[in-house]
Write a structure and sequence with these properties.
The chain is α+β, with helices and mostly antiparallel strands and 352 residues long. The chain contains three helices and 18 strands. The structure holds copper (II) ion (CU).
């Protein structure tokens, strides 16, 4: 659908007026501060002069239509409308009751970003010919700014919306939408949609079989040997046997023969004592007898021992052989001799 001619005329006129205002000395007053990009060229007013000349005869007709439409709109809602165009924001400051609606529209620019300095509404991108309306429900002052882009040029304007306490009736009614002037749609680059992050699928942990731990050998606790006390056995000790009155053997008499050398079984010189050695008890008596054919003695003297004795000459006698007896009272070993045949004829008496 092509735009109506009156609308086209009105839009072109608005652009011319806006351009003139932009180059005039008072363009910033009441229209917000425009901040062209550094080095950016001023929008040439001559660009619209041919159109202006051609449209001058049509001014009465073209102004009549939008004026009538605007009048109907304002009569119905009393809500302000703000135009963002080459001259800035018009009006730069608007006032309305709570519940009222402010509508922004864009001209001269490819697109405008409308930002609430107070965060009242989310930033809006409005393209030329489009509108954006916001309902103010809370009284207050709402500063905002717009960033307008036209080709590679960019401008910033500021505006203010003052909201009073009461709507005063009629407020809050949505603005009757005025059919927007159809504008060839500016190709809008698609807004890149960030990929929705897909949460990673949780991978269940692989169960790790527990490493068997060999049991730690526990050394056996040494148990101290229990010393069981053994009660003392009161074994009655048998009384010692009564002393036996063993009869001490009576002193004995031990015979010793004095023999000649010819009587010895083995060579013995001139004679011998038989037995050569005699063991007796203390208190015993030794009785020597000369059974030979020669004289002999049994003599112990000097270093012979603790006892001394001497038989004297004992003459041979075949009928009644002579004898000599001595009783030993001191224990000891006595080496004695025949005084006639010493040292060959010798004997020993051991007294215990
Ligand atoms: Cu002798």
């Amino acid at each position: 659908m092509s735009p109506s001619r009156p609308a086209q005329v009105f839009r072109s006129l608005a652009r011319c007026v806006a351009t003139l205002g932009r180059v005039g000395p008072g363009r910033a007053a009441g229209a917000g501060a425009r901040s062209p990009a550094p080095g950016g060229p001023a929008r040439p007013v001559l660009r619209f002069l041919p159109v202006l000349v051609l449209l001058v005869p049509l001014v009465p007709l073209s102004l009549a239509v939008p004026t009538a439409a605007a009048s109907r709109h304002h009569a119905a809602t009393n809500d302000p409308r703000v135009l963002i165009y080459g001259g800035g924001v018009r009006p730069a400051s608007v006032s309305l009751a709570a519940g009222g609606v402010v509508t922004w529209s864009v001209d001269d620019f490819d697109r405008v970003t409308l930002v609430s300095d107070t965060g009242a509404w989310p930033s809006q991108t409005i393209h030329e010919g489009q509108r954006y309306s916001y309902t103010f429900t809370t009284p207050g002052s709402y500063a905002y700014h717009v960033t307008a882009s036209d080709g590679d040029e960019q401008y910033t304007y500021h505006g203010m919306v003052s909201v009073t306490g009461s709507s005063g009736g009629g407020g809050g009614v949505p603005t009757t939408p005025v059919p927007p002037t159809p504008v060839p749609p500016t190709p809008v680059p698609p807004t890149p949609v960030p990929p929705t992050p897909v949460p990673p699928t949780p991978v269940p942990p692989t169960p790790v079989p527990p490493t068997p731990v060999p049991p730690t050998p526990v050394p056996p606790t040494p148990v101290p040997p229990t010393k069981t006390p053994v009660p003392p056995t009161n074994t009655p000790v048998p009384p010692p046997p009564p002393p036996t009155n063993t009869p001490v053997p009576a002193p004995a008499t031990h015979p010793v023969a004095l023999i000649d050398g010819a009587q010895c079984a083995t060579p013995c010189g001139n004679g011998a004592f038989n037995p050569l050695t005699l063991t007796i008890r203390t208190g015993d008596t030794v009785k020597w007898t000369n059974t030979g054919t020669n004289y002999h003695t049994a003599t112990c003297s000097g270093s012979c021992g603790p006892a001394t004795w001497d038989s004297g000459l004992m003459a041979p006698n075949a009928t009644t052989p002579p004898t000599y007896s001595y009783t030993f009272t001191v224990a000891g070993t006595y080496n004695y001799v025949c005084s006639l045949h010493a040292p060959g004829m010798a004997g020993t008496i051991v007294v215990q």
